[in-house]
Amino acid sequence: MNGTIYLVIGALLIGTVCYDLIYTTFSPRGAGFVSSTVSTFIWRSFFWMSRLFKTKQVLNGAGIVIVVAVLLTWVLLLWAGNTLVYLSDPEAVINSTSKVPADLAQRIYFTGYNLSTMGNGDYKAGTDAWRIYTAFISFSGLIMITIAITYMVPVLSAVTARRALSIRIAAIGRSPQKMLLNNWNGKDFKNLESHFENLAQAVAEQGQSHLAYPVLHFFHHTDKVAALLPNLAALDESITILLLFVPEEKRPSDQTLVPLRQAITTFLGSLTALFLNPGSVMEPNLDISKLEEAGIPLEKPELHRIEHLNKRRCTLKAMLDYDGWEWNEISDPPFHSSMDLPEML
């Protein structure tokens, strides 16, 4: 009876980890149950420690820890499942010399060895059927582990692209209003067109990368210039101000404005599908005071237009909250004041 239980539980573990690994690595729609559970648990642990020690520096290590933890979880579950399968039959693993059935520790050792190689011969499968199964897990285990490791390569590449995109956005301006003030030519905001037309594709690609590799969301940077989420929130808020308060003829053309706005919408949609609950946060303040002080002609928007964007802006705030940022930090300088002249920051 125990043998049947071991076989069933082992098969379930193997099936679960194989499905989770294949779904996570090949599906364009995110992570499997096991990897997403591990990722969320570790992120919340790091997040709790950052609040406990009152420093966001703790969050910097969360991404790489999660990647390694997910990889180890897959390997350990595969190892545990196959060990249980070998425990289902006393004759499944025997000592090569004495022919004595292996005990628990020896079966764990034998399973681990065969998942990565064909073993070293001190223990072997006891029957022809178990020898075939051993050859199968040696082959499939190597494939699974290779797939898991290969999964990490595009993740790290996407992290680099994410940082580069963040720097490009930060260069436009340090805050939503500063982005607009930096590109006011005295008549309109047409100077923003050159920035916007180059950002739409990069933002859309990041949205799809976050959907395909949800672990990207856990790569936190305390240095704002490399932190995509607060800079992306500032960019979107600047577009919101344009749409609500700036006359249409003074905005960037729809050919550059609309694709970027839609790309950000897609990015937010990928995060909402995986992590975010916008209904749990309060709508942030909409600040245009610096634009008014600069004497830029603005319109007073109708109330229903502002209310129509409440969900979007709550999603932006939820995105920042989940990543350990405060809404007011989207207006903080991204570049260090010691590195350049004030007018360059």
TrEMBL record:
Classification via SUPFAM superfamilies: Voltage-gated potassium channels
Pfam families: Ion_trans_2
Transmembrane parts of this sequence: 5-24, 30-47, 59-80, 132-159
InterPro entries, A to Z: K_chnl_dom (IPR013099)
Gene3D superfamilies on file: 1.10.287.70
Domain Potassium channel: 75-156
UniProt entry keywords in alphabetical sequence: Membrane, Transmembrane, Transmembrane helix
Protein name according to UniProt: Potassium channel domain-containing protein
Organism this protein belongs to: Pontibacter actiniarum
